[in-house]
Every structure is written in structure tokens, then in C-alpha cells.
Amino acid sequence: MKLKQRKLRGGFTRFRLMLTLGLAVLLPAAALIYVNFSQLRTFERDKVLEAAIHRDFQEMLAIAEKKMNKKAYTMAEEARDVFPSPDTEAGEKEKKLDLILSKNPWMAHVFLFDEKGLVFRSQPQQMGDQYFRKEHDQLAETFGGWLGMEGKSMVEDMHKKTRLMSFYSSPTKRADGETYVTTALFALPGLSSDRVVVGGATFDACYLKQTFFPGMLEELVNQKMSDQGGNRLAMMVYPADLDGGHEIKPLAASTGWGEGKPEVTRKFDDVFRGLGLAIKYQGTSVEALGQTWVHNGFLILGFLSLMIIGGLVLTKHIVSKEMALARLKSDFVSNVSHELRTPLALIRLYAETLELGRITTEEKKQQYYCIIRKESERLTALINNILDFSRIEAGRKEYEFRKTDIAELVRNTLDSYRYQIEQQGFALEESIDPDLPAVPVDREAIARALVNLVNNALKYSTDEKFLGVKLYREDSVVKLEVADHGIGIARRDQSKIFEKFYRAGDPLVHNTKGSGLGLSLVRHITQAHGGEIAVESTPGKGSKFILSLPLVSATQQPVSA
Ligand code: ADP
Asked: Which of 51, 162, 302, 477 stands the most exposed, by the fewest C-beta atoms within 10 Å?
């Protein structure tokens, strides 16, 4: 009845533990893993990372365009500031424009349009180049005609802008192929908007291609580098009008552009209309980065999941072990109290009977004395076991090794039990080698180990009452065997019986008094002698415990409790 109740309680505690583990740990852990996993899947499917990087790139390109525009505006404004007034004498205008050209080598052409017509000057040293001369002729003609027709409305429009300036860009040709120029057209500040006066400065194609764009791109890329987690950026400028269908060919690029397609492009407006800006990573693509990132994410998640699962299994294992130990301890307390009570009650009963003087025959009296002695011996053995056990647990157990005639020690110990053994109907078979050398042992401890083994053999035998004790030498080891033909020990229990408090699940074991300490003590004693203990057993047939002690100086070994 009690056992049933305890089983029920144990089952309930285990259920509660599983429920707590499930609800408090397993569920959140599983949810966490699931959420992370599906988030990663979403990232993978929707290319969230790629989109975020592309957004970033768009922003960088917008900033890059702004900076390039700003620089072009500033350069053109600086030129405008030294522009000659339209009212300067005819010959002077040319001179002043030539001076501007010589001071600003970035300019290919410079011109002034006013009521008297267009004065158009170009870098004189470049006029030898046929392409440059062609460009000169084309632009002079274009601006002459265009400003003649549209000059007035153009000046009005410019006066509406804060910078009084607009840009006109066009493709052009040089010896090394197609290229590009842009011209700043501006109203001269200080002149009224009624006067149709327009100044102009053309950025040289070579300057743009070889100096302006590469310098700006390098500066922008270097500025942005720190923002990118270790991946270096590359940027380039390309002719955007050729975009459709044509492969994008850089006009100018920052170092490390290399091969590969741009991640994001942006067409210039305003100053460099007709060109485009492109950006990418050096040596890798956003897609590849995204894939690596997601891949690593999955790997880390997998690893963490394994760790969580491992941790849970370990926790469950440890908690179950602790629970089993707690159960064993509570069994131990009730077993021990029971074991203490029974001999005490017997001693008291027999002593009281003797005291009353009711026992008349000497033979009966002797029998009573014997019972009292045996019960007190049982009590002493039990208390010694418990004391030893608590010393071991506290790490205070000490052994005193002395050269001992072990055969005599075993014989003496058996002698004091012989009567009890025979009384219980056991056949005792002794085989003790008398010629054994002296072995360094702790006498008391070895005797206690033997007593525990003998007691177990007596306790766990039913029909066939046999006890065999053998002492012999095998190489450099002395072996002490205690065998019985009792109930035996199931295979799965054989490794556990040496643990403290452990008692096998056999019903006979439960009906037999015991504390589960005996064999753990035997093992401790043996190991302290540098020896080992083994068991051979077949359920229903019997058991044999073999204790091996080394012959040569047994140094005390550190033993786990
Ligand atoms: P106790 O005998 O007090 O229960 P022990 O530590 O001496 O504790 O033994 C542990 C368990 O090992 C016993 O409960 C029993 O199940 C098993 N056992 C020990 N010796 C024998 C034996 N000779 N035959 C069968 N089972 C045994």
C-alpha cells in the first residue's frame, strides 16, 4: 500500500517535472528556434538583406551625385566670378577669356554671349587635335545658334534659379573614342535679367574622364568604406545613353571595380545628364553576400538548436538522477530506521523476559543470550556501516595498512559468523590458501567488506542455502571470492548495485532489510587498497563477488565517495 502510494507520488513528481521542462524550457526553446528559422527563410525568400543593401547603395549614389554636382557648380562659379563684363571692349573680351582658360586647365572652352554676338575661345594648345577642333566648331555653332534664339528665355529662367546657372551636356569624340563633355551656362551676376548675356565654360572631356571622375569616385569610395562590414566598395561613371541593350562600359571607375555587373545604377540629372553612376562590391556580389549570410545564419541556428537540445537532454538526465537519488535517500532513511528498530525491540524483549526470571532452563537462557548477542552484533554492523559511510561522504575515512596474514584474517572473520551461518541452514564451503604472503591491508576494513558480502549471500538466498568463500593467489593479486546460490542479480542491476543506496527492484530484496550501503562500502574499501571488485551473477542461480587485492605495497588510492 505504502509502496503504491510512493510510486504514485513519484510518477506525479516526474510528470510535473516533465510538464515544467516542457512548458518552461522546451516550448520557448522550440518557439525561438522556429521563429528564427522562419525568419531566416523569409530573409532567404524575400532577399531582405539584398534589398536593404540596395537601398543603401541608392542612397550612396544620390549622395555621390550631389557631391559631384556641388564640385562642378563651385568650379564653374569660380570661373564666372572672373568673367569679363559684356561691356568690355571687343578685343579685351577675348584676352580676358583666354586668361581664364590659361588659369583653369580643366576648361576646354569658354564663351560669352551678349547682344553683340558670341565670343567663343578654346584651349589654344589643344586646337591641334582634330577631334578637339571639331568639338570647338560644333559647340560654337550650337551655342551661337541656340543662344541667339533661346537666349532671352534662358536668361529669364536662370534668374529664377539661386545659382543663375544650368548645364548642358553632350557626347563628343576624342582620339581614344567616344567621350563626354558638359558645359556650364550662366547669367552674370550684377546684370539685370533684361540683358541677354550668357557666359559659358565647358569641362574638358579628358579632365572629366581622367581627373574629375576618378578623383571623386576614389574619395567617395574611401569615405564609405568604413560603413561596410569589411566589404570594399567600387564605383564608376558610365555613358547612360548607351544603357539600353549595350553592356555598361565605364567612362571612369574607382580602383577595384574589376569585372562583374553593377549592383545599383543611377542616371545623372542636371550637371552630368547623359551619364550614369554605378556601385558594387569589390570582388563579390550582394547576392553572394546574402547567400553566405543566410547560410551562416542557418548553420549557427542549427548549432544553437543542437546545443539547446543537448542541454535539455542533459538537464533531464541530471534532474532524473537527482530525483532517483532523493528517492533512494528517503528509502534509505526508512530502511535504516526499520533495521535499527527490529534488533532493539528483540534485545529489549529477550532482556525483559530474562529479567522477570521466568526462564528456568539453562539451555533456554543460553538461547536468549545468544539472540541478544546476535542482534546487538547486527546493530553494531549496521551502525558501523552507517558511520563508515558518513566518514566516506565527508571525506574523512582513513585506512591503516599493516602487513597482515590475510588467510588468518578471513578465517577469524568467518569463525565469528560460522554459528549464525550454520544455524540458518547454510552449507559453508571454505577454500583458503594457507601459504599466502602477508598483504598490507586495513584489517578492520577488509573484515567489514567480507562481513557485508557474507551477509548479502545469507540475505539474498532462498531455497538453495550455499555459501562459498575462497581465498587464493593469482599472479600478483590475492582474490577473495564470496559465492551463493541465491536469487542472483539482473544484468542491468549489476553495474548499479555498487552505488550508494541502490537496491535491486526484486521483490525479495524489498522484503529483506537493507540500507543499500553495504556494497558501496565494499567497493570503497577495495579501491582504497588499490584493488577492485567484480560480480558474476545469473538471476535465479546465484552470485559471486570477487574482491582482488594487490600483493605489493598497496598505496592508498583516492576514492570517489
Ligand atoms: P543492501 O543489502 O543493504 O540492500 P547492498 O549495498 O549490500 O545493500 O546491496 C545492494 C543491492 O545489491 C541489494 O539490495 C541487492 O539487490 C543486491 N545484492 C547484493 N548482494 C547480493 C547477492 N549476494 N545476491 C543477490 N543480490 C544481491
From this structure: 162
Atom of ligand 1 nearest to the CA of 542: 24
Q: In whole angstroms, give the CA distance from residue 546 to residue 160.
A: 110
pLDDT digits (tens, 9 = 90+) for 427-483: 999 999 988 999 999 998 999 999 999 999 998 998 899 999 999 999 889 999 999
The secondary structure of 302-362, three-state, reads HHHHHHHHHHHHHHHHHHHHHHHHHHHHHHHHHHHHHHHHHHHHHHHHHHHHHHCCCCCCH
- Answer whether 406's CB lies under 8 Å from 531's CB: no
Q: What is the DSSP letter of 193?
A: T
In 3D space, the residue among 356, 229, 449, 187 whose CA is nearest the CA of residue 457 turns out to be 449
pTM of the complete model: 0.56
List Cβ neighbours of 150 (8 Å cut-off, separation of 6 or more): none
Q: Which residues pair with 156 in a beta bridge?
A: none
Question: Which residue out of 503, 523, 544 has the highest number of ligand 1 atoms within 8 Å of its CB and is therefore the one to mutate?
Answer: 503
* Count of other CB atoms within 10 angstroms of residue 342: 14
Could you tell me how far CA 296 lies from the centroid of its own chain? 12
CA of 35 to the centre of ligand 1 (A): 52
CB contact at 8 A, 252 and 234: no
| Closest among 137, 185, 172, 136 to 251, alpha carbons compared | 172
